[in-house]
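Model it.
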Amino acid sequence: MREQITEGLKKAIKAQDKRRMATLRLVSAAIKDRDVAARGSGGERVDNDALLHILATMVKQRDESMRIYEEAGRLELAEQERAEIAIIKEFLPRQMDEDQVKAAVEAAIADIGASGLRDMGKVMGVLKERFPGQMDFGKASAVVKSLLM
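Modeled.
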């Protein structure tokens, strides 16, 4: 995954695509920052699951910023955020559709024997471990809640 991001950055530099260059440089900086933090605590480079988490967090941050900009009437800034989201999502695995999310939630509930809302956190933990970057956990949370009620 690191190589894909680095290769994407090289292509953006060659093509002089400023938005893509800036976005991929931010992604690379976030990854290097996490590597340094891991090294400081005795670990090594972060793995692909951590990279997926970093990218998903960056998408979520930009999505929130985009909504704020739209509410404030700053449509040009909202469009910048939307473009950055599209660039970052290119490096994330394909998102699961609603049916796949429901099936995954049902499987997680069955695997841990969840029986009520008090088990919601356990189910979400299993989903985050099994499907990093592959589903919107906000939507998955609503599915979990509806199935556990």
